[in-house]
Structures are given as structure tokens and as C-alpha cells.
Amino acid sequence: MSLWNDFLHSLPQLLAYGLVNAGVLALGAVGLALIYRIFNFVHFAHGDLMTLGAYWGFLFNVTLRLPWLLAFVLALPATIVCALFIDRTFYRPLRRQHSVVLLISSAGMALVLRNLVRLFWGQSVRSYDLDFHRAASVLPGVRLTPEELVIVGFALATALFLFVLLRYTRLGKALRALADDVDLAAGCGVSLAWATRWTWVLGAGLAATGGIVLGVEDHLLHPLMGWNVLLSLFAAVVLGGLAHPYGALLGALIIGISQELFAFFLPQYRPALALVVLIVLLLWRPQGLLGQRT
Amino acid sequence: MVWKLLAVGALLLVLNAMGRGAFALFFSIQAGIYALLALGLNVQWGYTGLFNVGISSLFALGAYTSALLTKNPVPSPGAWPGLGLPFVVGLVCAALVAALAAALLGSATLRLRGDYLAMVTLGAGEIVRLLLLNESSLTHGAEGLRAIPQPLHTWFPARDYNAFYFVVVLALLALTFWGMERVLRSPWGRALRAVRDDEEAAASLGKNTFVLKFQAFVLGAALMGLAGALYAHFTTFISPADFVPLQTFLVWMMLIAGGSGSNRGAVVGAVLIWGLWVGTSVLGGFFPSQWAVKFSYLRIIAVGLTLQWMLLCRPKGILGTITSPSSAKI
Amino acid sequence: MSKNTQFIGRSLNRRRFLQGLGVGVGSALLSPLRGLAQNAIPLGALYPLTGAAAVFGPKFVQAAQLAVDQVNAAGGPLGRPLKLVVKDSGSAPQQATSAIQELINLNGVPAVSGAATSFATVAVAPIAAANEVVLVSPSAATTELTTLQDDDYVFRTFPSNALQGVALAKLALQEGFKQLSVIHRNDSFANTLSEALIGAFEARGGTVLEDVAYAPDETSFRAALERANRGNPALIVPIPLAEDGNLLIKQAFQLGIDTLRIWPSSIKNQTFVDDLVNTLGADTLEGVKGTFPSTPTGPSAQRYAAQYEAQFGEAPTPFTANVYDSVFSLALAIQAAGEASGPALRGALRAIANAPGQSVGVDEFAKAKSTLEGGQAVQYDGASGPVDFDENGDVLAPVGVYQIQAGQIVEVGEISIA
Question: What is the pLDDT of residues C129-185, one digit of tens each?
Fold first, then answer.
């Protein structure tokens, strides 16, 4: 019963877990990529924004005892408002600075958000008021809980939503134009303030959704939950490349699945894969898989 | 500056002789260690503009290296064996190992722009922590290393040992400060600052920017490793959980508060920020214990917000003089 | 504009330097003044208010305070009131080491009750020893404390894993399990208990299939559980602390692994069980058994239980009796030693705890005081057991078995260690 045999035997299950993982990463990565494309800085607080979203969900679901669907839906605008406030107060004044300054600021915000969560909800693990389910067989060799299935479905829905948004709506077109060339877009009448707001709405909304999804999948919330996936999000974004709007999705898919496969052999080093991928990419193809070399 | 340091040092020793200095010495040793970290970051960031999010991991590597090299090879049962080498060897190797790690990471990533270095140093920091935690056959994992030997411990009675250790830390700090000041004024130092201010211009003038960045990164890392070793021998117990992102943060803040690019600023900033940090902790001691926990989170939030305030109000504290245009799109 | 900023910057710098210096010097001068108001004797308490064992922390504080209040009601040791200084030992060793440094340097304590978790105790023990401060842990079970080079400054009122490990092994065999796997937290407590368990189990003819360790701050146990489940053992013994134990058992349930049926003492806690019953249902836990240092039934222990209940309105939670004993015996030691200093207390602890001497129990500080003042010895018989410190500072205790019945923890007997 060698390790390799075990691995092959578990492969379908691992791929399924990989899809679930990819779903979570996708939600965070798309937001991160969007913020990077529009504001041109690496948002180090993105993971903790996911954490914040998850805990807003907790507040509505457990503290205020709202049904989970309503609670989760309410968590989104709550997080978005926070993100807009942070941008307005801390990031906007620094926008003319070197992007490293914004990076530091966002790293500082990450620390603040994480400890605000600890201040109000403590360091201990919490969980949503959801029923507990055992994993059931969905395909031969694959057992998933109903929550995990929902997550996969959700991630697909998000991808679809993004597609529709970018392709068919005014907002999507404006964002794509801005990402390509700010002055030209502004010249064509795209309001920068409007676009800023919507970038955060999308970015923070997706992050909050990602955080909630993470909380549901693991059936637990803790203050470091978002920070722990930050590295994987970076890898996903860089892997996908920033030129193409779906890059982050592709990156999340690849990182998500390969992390699960890798974790079979070295479970304690899960984040290591993301780092290795990141370094290899940066050396070999920094524009990512879908990008063009500029 | 060096004279100011020595004067303060003398004052503290006098206080200790009077029997009143225990806490001040304890504080000063830690402040000195952080000052070394800040000086290291200053080389990387203040002089060269390299953004390091993984300071705590270099700190950890230095601490573990020195601990493992100097611990007793035939320890008491349950303790982890080391190589029993002298303290000085531990210090030097700590600096070397941290430098080596930086060299490995830097060789792969210093060619790329700052954001990517930040991401990668974050990742590297994570990996180092995981390695220290999981390679227990080498590091004793989560249980950590205890009974780390203190140099010349038997020469001093227990109560006076800290005074001696303080002198050691102060001496190393003064030496490092003097050295870094020399570096700052040297041609190499000027070249580093040219790279920081405008890498493209520096390159067009014929400077090998990659080699310069690499050297600065490695030198800064060596200082951080040294600080780590001093930390290990001071606390006599280290474990992977001791090395957290908050430390990296505090060091950034120290440099920003003091004004990066300036060694004096690094040391002053270290004393200041560490003073505020410990001061707020002492303040927290007045609260009943349940509230003390919440208070500790408030402290960290205050740290983060103070950082924001510094960024908003003292942009000069960040990167000396930045002449390259902003690359923000909006 | 830049000139102004620079000017402000420089003078701001100087002012802040002086401020920082002031803080440092000020605290240096003030530090000896703290904790000495009204001639009180400060006693350190290092308990887990946050972190993996936080579910025990607040109760420990209560038990310690009960002991202090009773001692002070009888006039206090040497006629001076005891003052409990509580600090959080936290979730990582560094918090504990910082906390004990503060207790020693800032509050000037001669002794500390704590730490509660093994990982924290092992970290702070050398610091206590180096600073000549007595440490009495109420709940650290790691075998490392027995052999620690601590200059005899470290004691505990809780038995070592060496005993519990044997008990767990014997319980498993008694329940008919010839094979087992272990999944344990990677820290001093769980590593040593796992070693003791495996050693004892194999020595009695059992087979151990897998021994899996997980990182202390782990929240996703899927990989570890699947690894522990290889070979389909009939029994998987979890050795967690309360917080990770909660997640571990829930995730095992999610994966369909039902074999975590024998538990150690670290999760013998009704709050812990209540939460699991809430989430997973009482029948998933029905019949689960575990071992723990058993609660004595003598008059001293009963008095403790009654008084704890009277003061706090609830039955004492596990291990609070050991906390009480750690504080009470320190108070007795101070009285016997005639001074509140570490080196003196070190010698006095065994004298007041072990035979010979007049027996004193819970809440009998006045009686002990007058006996000691009269030049006689005392022998403390505590809330958690006879509290006799051996040459390593350890205590012995019989091991009991508990079982979860209809969601309640019920103590069902003892198990011999022979």
C-alpha cells in the first residue's frame, strides 16, 4: 500500500477538494487582481478583508440570529462600506505616492483589520449557525459535503457573473478601458471617482463572499483565516497574469488544485507550493500565463 | 550618536548598581536588539529601497542558528542537543545563515520590481516558519529550544547578568552603527542610494543595479540574523511561534518614525517605538485580566493606525527622497 | 514646504527621543514601587486566558482567587496580605515568557502559580529557575518537567503524563482495542503523552498503526485525520488541547471517522462537550471514555468543592482544585519559610506539603499558621489530593476514568497504573 498508490487511489477526491479550494481562491484573487489593475498596488489587506466579510456574516448570522442567506447577503454591503471608508481615509491620499507606500499602508490595514476582528470576536475559533453535514458520495471515489458542492457551484456562478459583467455592462467596459489606459478612458468620459467606487464594490464584495465561503467550507472562522490564504492569492494573480481579466480565475484554478495534490504528500507545507510557483513564475514568466510580454 | 548611546548605557548601569535598574535594563536590551533590526532594514530599504516583508524570518533564522550551534551537546534529558560552540561563533554563523537565506531569495527575485519582492519575502517568511515548525528533527519543532546558553553566565550573579548582557548588546549596536555610518558615506553607499532613487537612471549610468541590490539585501539580512542571535541568548527559549508578522511591522514603524535612510533615525525610532509598545503593555497591566486581553488587541490596532498616520503625515519618513513618478493609474 | 516638514521632523525627533528615554527611565524608577502597596506579598498567576486552553483560564483565576481570599481572611502569611497578579500565558510560548518576565521584573513576585499548559510551563521554567523564583504548575502534564534542570525551583500539583499515558493504554486494552492510532498536537504535553501511551500500549502487546502530529495552530485536520485513519484502526486516540480538539472532533465527524472514542484529560471539560453535543448531537459522543487524574473524596476536597460552589455558583471545573492547591501551598510555604523569597520558598514547599506534620486542609490557613508559629510542622492535604512533592517536584495521583453519558461527563471509576 505505497504512498503513490494511495495517491492515485485518492486522486478523484483530491481533485474535488482542489476545485473547492480553487473556488475560494478565485473569489479572493479576482478582487485582488482588479484592485491591482486599477490602482496599481498589491493590496496586502485583501486576505483580512475576506476575514472581515466572514465575521460580518457571523455577526448577522449568529449574534443577530438572522437566517444564513440573509446574513450572508447583508455581510457584503457591510464589508464594502468598510472598504470604501478605508480607501477614502487611508489609500486615496497616498495614491500619488510610490506604490510601495500603498503596499505598506495596506499591510498596516491588514494588521488593523485582523485585530479589530480579535477585539470584537476574540482569538478563538467561531462558526456559523449552520447544520453539520457528513460528506456524502457524489461520484465514485468522491465524497463531499453539501456545503462543498455549493461552493463549487458558487465559484462557477461567479465566473459567469464576471464574464457577463465585463463583456456586457457599461461598468465592465469602463473597467477594461481604465485598466488599459487611464487618460484615454478619462478622456472618453469615464468618471474616475465612479470607477474607484465600483472597483471597491466589486473587489470587497468578492472578498467578503470569499471569506464567507471559506467560513462555510471549513465550518470555522478565526482571525487569521484570510491572512493564511494571502500568499496563495498572490500566486494565483501572478500566475494568471494581469493582462487578461480571467487570468485570476485561471490562476486560482491551477493553484487551488495543485495545492491539494501537493498537500497529499506534504500537508504541513501547503503554502510552500504557492511560494514556489510564485518564484518560478517571476523568474521565468512574470507576465503570467495569459499575459503578453511588454 | 555613539556618545549618546554610551551615555545612556552608563546611566542605566549606574541605576542597576543602585538596585533599581532591572526593568530598564530588560527594556534596553530588547530595544537594542530591535535597533539592530532597524539598522538592517535601513540598509535594505532606507539606502536601497528594497521592501522586506519577511524580517521576522531572518530574525528567526539567526536565533535558531545561534541557539543550535551553542547549545550543550550533552543536554539534560528532554532538552535538545546543540553543537556546544562558543557564543561568538554562534553570533557570526547566525549572521551568515541569514545572509545566505537572503542571498538565495534575492538571487531569484531582486531583478523584479518592489511589489514582487514584497510578495516573495512574505512567502519566504511563511516557509521559514513552517520549516522551523515541521523539521523537528533539526529544530525540535513547536516545542522550541530552551536552555540556550548565555555567554559568561557563571561569572555573574543572577541579578547582575542582565547588566553584562546589556553591555554586550550596546557594544555590538555601537559598532554596527559606526560601521553603517561609514557605509553610508562610502561610494558604495552612494551607489545604493542612486539605485533607490531612480533605478533606471542608475543603470543607464553603468551601475550594475542587481549586484548592488543583492549586496545591500544580504548585508541587511546579516544584521537581522545577528539581532536574532542576541535575542535567542537573551530569552534562552525560542520557538517558531515567537517570530510573528507583528515584529516585522514594529521594525518598519521604527524606521519610519525615525526617518528611513538615517541610521540615527533607526536607533532612535527603535527606542521610541519599543518604548511606546512596552509602555502600553505596562498600562494594560492596570486593567483586570479579562480586559487586558482586549487591550492587547487595541495596542496592535493602535500600532497599525499610527503607521497609517505616519504614512499620511510624514511621507519623508518613508523613502528619503523619491524622485521617480508615481505609477498609480488613478 | 519640504523645509518645514524637515524642521518639524527634526525637533519632533528630538522631543520624542527624550520622551522615549523618559518612559524607560521612569519605569525603571517606578518599577520597584509597584506591587508593594500596603505591605502586600505579590503572587504571580500565569493562566491561559487566551489560546488553546482558554476554556480553563477564567476558572483557574477564580480558584486561585478563592485560595488567596481564604488565606487573607486568616490574616495572610506572616501577617501580610497576598496579592494575586494574573497574567495571560497566551497561545504561544513567547507570551508566557514575556508575562513571567513582567511578573518577575515588574511585580517582583517570589513565586508563580502556573503556567497551565505544558508548552508554556516548559518555556517559563528555566526563566523562573534563573531568577530564583518558585514555579508551581497546576496542570502541566509533560514528562519533561520531571527531568528539567531547574535547580529545584519548579513544582507541580498535577501528575505527569507518565502516569496518564499508562492509564490511557490500559483503558484502551480494557475496552478491547488491540490496535490504535494516535493523532496529537505537536507540543510538549501531547508529544510526551503520546510517547507514554504508545510505549505503554506496545509494552502490553498492543499495536500502534499511525502516530500523526499536527501543528498547534492548525485549523484544518483533514490531511492529518486521513493519515491517522490509514489501515482503518478501530481506535484513534486524539491528544489535543481544548480548542484544536473541538475542531478535530468535528472534522472527523464530517469525514465519517467515528473512531475517536478514548480521550485524554485535556478535554475533560463540560463546556467543551456541550459545544460538541450542540453541533454533532449527543449520540455521536455517547459512551466515549477518557482518563484524568481522579478527584479525591476526602473531607479537604469536599470542603473545596462546597466552598467553590458557594462562592461562584457552579461546581468546580476540572483542575481548579489543583490550582487552589498550588496557591494555598505557596501561602503555607511563605508562612513556614518566614520570608517571601524564592530560595526560602523552595526549601519550605516540601516541608509543608509532605509528611511529617500536623494535617491541614483546604481553608485551614489559620490552623496552619498557629501550628507553624508554635514551631511544629504541617502537612498539607489538598483539594486535588495529598499534594506530596517528590524529589523532582512532581506529585502522584490516582487516575480515574470518565465517560460521556447523554452529553454529560460522568466519573465512572479508577484505573490502576500498575
Answer: 888 899 999 999 988 888 887 788 999 999 999 899 999 999 999 999 999 999 999
pLDDT per residue as tens digits for the range A176-211: 777 676 666 666 666 777 888 888 999 999 999 999
**Whether C169 and C194 share a structural domain:** yes
Using DSSP, state whether B287 is helix, strand or coil. coil
Are C267 and C404 part of one and the same domain?
Answer: yes
Mutate to test the interface with B, among A232, A279, A294 (most CBs of B within 10 A): A279
Whether B322 maps to a domain, the answer reads no
Cell (9 digits) for B105: 531569495
Q: Label residues A130-148 b or e (16+ Cβ within 10 Å = b).
A: eebeebeeeeeebbbbebb
CA distance C167 to C62: 30
- Decide: A203 and A252 in contact? Cβ < 8 Å: no
Count of CB atoms within 10 A of residue C305's CB? 17
Peptide bond preceding C356 in cis form (omega within 30 of 0): yes
**pTM given for the model:** 0.81
C173 and C102 both lie in a single domain: no
For residue C411, the surrounding DSSP H or E stretch is strand C408-415
Nearest CA in chain C to B148: C126
What is each CA distance from A148 to A20, A53, A133, in whole angstroms?
6, 19, 10
Helix (H) or strand (E) holding B240: none
Q: Does ipTM come in above 0.90?
A: no
C-alpha C126/C-alpha B87 separation (Å) is: 19
The count of structural domains within chain C is 3
What CATH number does the domain containing C188 carry? 3.40.50.2300
Grid cell locating C97 = 515568557
In a domain, A132, yes or no: no
CATH number at residue A222: 1.10.3470
The domain in which residue B32 lies consists of 2-244
Structural domain of C61: 37-159+298-380
Tell me, yes or no, whether B323 lies in a domain: no
Q: Are C60 and C116 in contact (CB under 8 A)?
A: yes
Residues of chain B positioned with their CB less than 8 A from the CB of A268:
130, 133-134
pLDDT of residue C13: 46
Q: How many CB atoms lie within 10 A of CB A157?
A: 12
Q: What pLDDT sits at residue B120?
A: 85
Can the peptide bond before residue C115 be classed as cis, meaning omega within 30 degrees of 0? yes
- Quick count: other Cβ atoms within 10 Å of Cβ B207? 16
With CB atoms and an 8 Å threshold, state whether B268 touches C13.
Answer: yes
Contact between C17 and B8 using a beta-carbon 8 Å cutoff: no
Same domain? C200 vs C276: yes
Sequence length of chain C is 418
Residue B206 Cα, gap to closest chain A Cα (Å): 23
A 177-206 → C contacts, CB under 8 A:
none
B142 contact partners, CB below 8 Å, separation of at least 6: B133, B136, B239, B240, B241, C119, C186, C187, C215, C216
Domain around A14? 3-120+154-284
Asked if A41 and B328 come within 8 Å (Cβ–Cβ), the reply is: yes
Give the model confidence (pLDDT) of C86-130 as tens digits.
988 887 787 888 889 888 887 889 999 989 998 899 889 888 988
Of the candidates C79, C51, C61, C68, the residue with the CA atom closest to the CA atom of residue C243:
C51
Secondary structure (DSSP) of A68-125 = HHHHHHHHHHHHHHHHHHHIIIIIGGGTTS-HHHHHHHHHHHHHHHHHHHHHHH-SS-
